[in-house]
């Protein structure tokens, strides 16, 4: 039943189920744009003639644009009626995506990605408010967080499925064009069913805090650059890294100083006086560090098993089904009043089982079918973790700090994601070097099994009619490829093993940490 206390935002002839379906359809594409080509980095790098680190930086730029503009949008968006504001945002985002599909200069794409993130924020913020308004008051926060974080989680597998399917038949620009075909119908339906109403009080121009947005953007851009290029440029041995670090430090100090002294701060630092909120933010960062194994598994599937587009879509579909199941099930438990500590413990335990299972399955010639259940379990686990974690983090905040808390949670999610990328960029070459050192001693001619393997490969190639010199080069090439595969495989095993140990430690902390032990946010005691 519709809430009669709210203004008539939607046309009277639209049923409630259709409103909710259209809202979700319109909300998902901005999230999808974040991870649109995250699983196709090699193809993107080849098309634009850049390094994989450049592609990673473009993804972080979108994220930085979205996060930096999140507190700003409610102020700026108050100057337009809801439908006009969304229409302007949809047109701008469609234009930016269309331009991204037409440029060949990667530097232009980087600027477009930051602007895409900024404009996507102007769609996400009002749509989330509308979703919360369509739900019963005692269920609004749980269901709203389920939709919001479920959409964020689903964006990665959906983006990978879309990009792999398109790139199997077309060039890179078609990925952006396919995105428009997916995104525009939902946006147009939403505009069709909206009434021309104002849902937010217009704020004075003096309250538009542009300097804080600039400072926060500088901070996030500096961190994104460090995470993307740090290892490639040997960290602080490069002047560019010093400039990025300086930008991040100056941006953070100036931003913090300004928020403390502003009468109406961009983000109210009062949220950090709440212990449970700070614990929740720390868990967000840890959780997204553990989520970094998703990219490691993707590297294994592409670099070791050499999956094709159809196989990759099947693997990502298993993850997506798990996310939907996990979010749906955990919301029911939350509504029934299950203590959040136990839901978090179950979610992280499932994530531990996934990592141990994958560790045991990794091999140079494994069947893809055996990975469907572990990937479904991963989706189930992350869905089981994220909604209770968001509720635990936000549950103790007073109403006036809810907006600041939401922004801080999204910002720390970004920091966890950036930190995860930085750690993987450090560990991968370290473990690769260690693996190569172990092989180097065996590469001396005539002294190892490796030499015998080279001789066997050479004889096999000669038996197929190749000349001696050609067979020698071919054997060396095959050995190098085998070594690369083994190095990547060892890297995957090491990383999954490290994360498994981290999850065990986290589970112990969850069971003994006082804030989590005493937290019992339920719908029976008080509304969320």
UniProtKB/TrEMBL annotation:
Membrane topology, record value: Multi-pass membrane protein
Main location: membrane
InterPro entries the record matches: MFS, MFS_trans_sf
Alphabetical keyword list: Membrane, Transmembrane, Transmembrane helix, Transport
A Pfam cross-reference name: MFS_1
Gene3D superfamilies membership: MFS general substrate transporter like domains
TM region(s), chain numbering: 21-40, 55-72, 84-102, 114-132, 144-164, 170-194, 210-228, 240-257, 277-301, 313-335, 342-362, 368-392, 495-516
Subcellular locations according to the entry: Membrane
PANTHER family given in the database record: MAJOR FACILITATOR SUPERFAMILY MULTIDRUG TRANSPORTER MFSC (PTHR42718)
The protein's name: MFS transporter
Native source organism of the sequence: Hymenobacter mellowenesis
């Amino acid at each position: 039943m519709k809430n009669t206390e709210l203004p008539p935002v939607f046309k009277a002839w639209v049923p409630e189920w259709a409103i909710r379906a259209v809202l979700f359809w319109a909300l998902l594409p901005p999230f999808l744009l974040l991870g649109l080509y995250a699983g196709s980095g090699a193809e993107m790098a080849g098309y634009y003639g850049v390094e994989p680190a450049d592609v990673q930086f473009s993804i972080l730029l979108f994220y930085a644009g979205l996060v930096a503009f999140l507190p700003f949008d409610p102020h700026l968006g108050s100057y337009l009626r809801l439908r006009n504001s969304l229409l302007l945002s949809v047109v701008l985002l469609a234009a930016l995506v269309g331009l991204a599909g037409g440029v060949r200069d990667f530097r232009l794409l980087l600027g477009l990605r930051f602007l895409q993130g900024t404009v996507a924020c102007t769609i996400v913020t009002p749509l989330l408010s509308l979703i919360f308004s369509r739900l019963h008051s005692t269920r609004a926060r749980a269901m709203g967080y389920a939709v919001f974080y479920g959409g964020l989680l689903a964006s990665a597998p959906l983006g990978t499925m879309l990009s792999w399917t398109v790139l199997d038949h077309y060039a890179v620009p078609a990925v952006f064009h396919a995105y428009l075909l997916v995104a525009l119908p939902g946006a147009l339906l939403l505009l069709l069913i909206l009434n021309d109403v104002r849902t937010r009080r217009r704020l004075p121009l003096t309250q538009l805090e542009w300097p804080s947005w600039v400072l926060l953007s500088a901070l996030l851009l500096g961190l994104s650059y460090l995470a993307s290029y740090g290892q490639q440029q040997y960290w602080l041995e490069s002047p560019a890294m010093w400039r990025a670090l300086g930008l991040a430090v100056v941006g953070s100090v100036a931003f913090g100083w300004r928020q403390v002294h502003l009468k109406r701060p961009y983000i109210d630092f009062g949220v950090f006086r709440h212990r449970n909120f700070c614990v929740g933010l720390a868990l967000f960062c840890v959780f997204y560090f553990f989520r970094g194994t998703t990219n490691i598994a993707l590297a294994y599937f592409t670099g070791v098993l050499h999956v094709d587009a159809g196989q990759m879509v099947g693997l990502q579909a298993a993850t997506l089904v798990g996310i939907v199941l996990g979010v749906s099930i955990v919301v029911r438990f939350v509504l029934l009043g299950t203590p959040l500590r136990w839901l978090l413990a179950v979610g992280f335990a499932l994530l531990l089982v996934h990592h141990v299972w994958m560790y045991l399955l990794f091999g140079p010639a494994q069947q893809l079918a055996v990975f469907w259940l572990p990937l479904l379990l991963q989706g189930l686990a992350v869905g089981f973790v994220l909604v209770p974690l968001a509720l635990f983090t936000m549950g103790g905040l007073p109403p006036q700090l809810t907006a600041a808390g939401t922004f801080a949670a999204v910002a720390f999610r970004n920091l966890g994601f950036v930190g995860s990328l930085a750690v993987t960029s450090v560990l991968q070459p370290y473990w690769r070097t260690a693996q190569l050192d172990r092989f180097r001693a065996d590469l001396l001619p005539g002294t190892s099994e490796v030499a015998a393997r080279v001789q066997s490969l050479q004889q096999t190639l000669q038996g197929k009619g190749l000349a001696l010199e050609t067979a020698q080069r071919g054997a060396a090439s095959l050995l190098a490829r085998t070594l690369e595969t083994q190095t990547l495989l060892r890297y995957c095993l090491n990383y999954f093993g490290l994360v498994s140990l981290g999850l065990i430690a986290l589970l112990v902390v969850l069971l003994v940490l006082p804030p989590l032990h005493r937290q019992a946010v339920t719908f029976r005691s008080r509304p969320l």
